[in-house]
Amino acid sequence: MGQYRSAVCQASEVCCNISQVDESVDVTEGPSDAEDLCGMSNPIGLDANANASEDQAKFGEFPWTIALFHKGQYFGGGSLVSQNAVLMAAHLLADKSEADIVVRAGDWDLSSTEESTPHEERQVSRVVKHENFDVKTGSNNLALLFFESPLPRTAHIRPICMATAERSIDTRCFVAGWGKKTYPDVDYSSILKKIELPIVDRDTCQNQLRQTRLGRSFVLAPSFVCAGGEKGKDACQGDGGSALFCPLADNTSRYEQVGIVNWGIECGAENVPATYTNVAQFQPWIEQQLKLASNEAE
């Protein structure tokens, strides 16, 4: 199998420590009625002074983007699916205790605390992995992180919609994460990346992956959706667990999550798509877990 897109800090790499929120800074005012919808982005960002390059997201552009920390070190991404739950990849949770995991919402530059609006952090109180997750193949690779104190719903912190149907192959979608820009890179990205990717149909994906070291007998798991295959554009190590999200047909500023970054063969090779957990397939499971958590909280 290819490499999971996890962040593991080596001696030569830099991991970002958790910073304390500055309580003296006022949190952004609550969203408008339109912004109260799931999946609403901020296409021009929320801070004109936060300069972003073409391959970086603007500050606050994708308010559902979550950075995950274990004992103070960044280890992967996730997506906000309710104000007290994050969707992510189960493979990231190996050898990690929920007591040591913190989710950070509303951040952009992990190396700075000077952003115009502060991020929010929550201690994870419960972890729910999919019961059929297979670590060898990456099948059913998803999990939910719950925290007792809900995040505020603001312009730079709000949930993504979840896809309920398969996406057509003419769709171009995005991944936003803090992973490496290219496979040989030593360090992860401090500023949130923005990667545009095409959806790849299952037959093409399986055939292209069979041309790699996976071999001619490789079979694409039913729980996967594929994206990528364009040279130099790809999720990479450290992006594991982040959302693959696509614009809704009737609103190019509103998005739904179709995948979770799973694994790939290195990063950014032409005609080598990467695999993502198919969110539409697991939407009933996600909704069930969210409902169970809500009932337990009452």
Automatic annotation (TrEMBL):
InterPro entries noted in UniProt: Peptidase_S1_PA (IPR009003), Peptidase_S1_PA_chymotrypsin (IPR043504), Peptidase_S1A (IPR001314), Trypsin_dom (IPR001254)
One term of GO molecular function: serine-type endopeptidase activity
Keyword line: Disulfide bond, Secreted
Cellular component annotations (GO), alphabetically ordered: extracellular region
Localization (cell): Secreted
Organism annotation: Drosophila persimilis (Fruit fly)
GO biological process, one term: proteolysis
Pfam families: Trypsin
Protein name: Phenoloxidase-activating factor 2
Record domain Peptidase S1: where: 37-291
